[in-house]
Amino acid sequence: MSKSLGVGIAGLGTVGGGFLKQLKGFKANSKSESNVKIVQIAVKNIKKKRNFNTKNLPLVSNALQLASNKEIDVIVELIGGSSGVAYKLVKKALSNKKHVITANKALIATHGNELAAIAEKNNVCLNYEAAIAGGVPIVKAVRENLRFNKISKIYGILNGTCNYILTKMSQDKRDFKDVLKDAQKKGFAELDPTFDIQGIDAAHKISILSSLAFNIKIDFKGTYIEGISKIDASDFLYAKELGYSIKLLAIAEKKGSQVEQRVHPCFVKQDSDISKVDNELNAIVVNDNVIGSNIFEGPGAGAGPTGASVMSDLMDIHRGTYILPLGSSVKRKKRLKIRKITDLKFSYYLRILAKDQSGVMASITKVLSYHKVSIESIIQKPSQKKNYAEIILIIHSIKESTLISALKKIKGLNTVSSSVKLVRIEDSL
Q: 97: which of 56, 122, 184, 238 fits an S-S bond (Cβ 3.0–4.6 Å)?
């Protein structure tokens, strides 16, 4: 029987616990296969009480020592964060010719090009299936199965926290802050939910998928990011009346020699596939020129789904499967221009708070007409603010910079409140 595959685990939180549970049940299928041996588990606090027995586990407090342990062949990094101990551990492990598995999307989005190059140089794996969409095998699908199909667009719901919040706001007619508190109580949102609700988490993920899909270097900084905190219950009422629902979408699209990478709330048609993905579920759509459209859907977080993805990456290493971390060599990756959001064209939902008096609508439409902004539909509703009205406009497709210029003029009207809301419409999804 061959020697055991030595595993070191850094971090024993929700994902670490889920992975450990699955790993304990693993047995080699034959005598010719190596078994898996847990050599060390690094935790911040060895004495911390956990919801499973840690008595016989080989716990240590220094994560970096895993990278130098000669008995360890694979390091599983589940600490999190784009820098600090996680970055130092992964870089040192790869430099010491150890395979690495991580669930850390922030790390890959920020340092993925550098870390992938080190992995390539030392002929070791850097696997990160668990970093994107929990139990949904989207990394393998894009990096290995679909990468030769000339992918043109990849988009979807990549953050379960935001999707849960938006679903409950829509179904229960509640405001953002109220639903967020509920999500935190139920464990669907962190105590500090900034990365989730501001769209940063989804942006980490789409920048990685964009690299895999379009054979470009990871460029997280080039991704446009907008969160969901400004969406309120009234927006859902108006969206429904207009035949839409609201989703936080992460979108990457290649057009010629340029790429779009963006995360923001979108109006999507109620009968679209992406509109029907609710609660904490994730869904990713991949468009290519061979198959057409592939839809991947499943739980985007949690001990079981994410732990299963970590286990899947480990089994690839156990079988001797080696794939370049970013699908192709970092040296051969291109750096394409990422288009600015202001250079793109969309249809829009606008919500304007204005004084309820004659001539207001005429002054607004005059400004829009001057900037050649075309209106598809207008709805006027009474406002909770005395002597004011809500004006809801659906705007035909136009370059965003043009609309922004028009909105600056509208906000300057003495009959209009400074509160003008804009949500992009994705009619083609």
A: 122
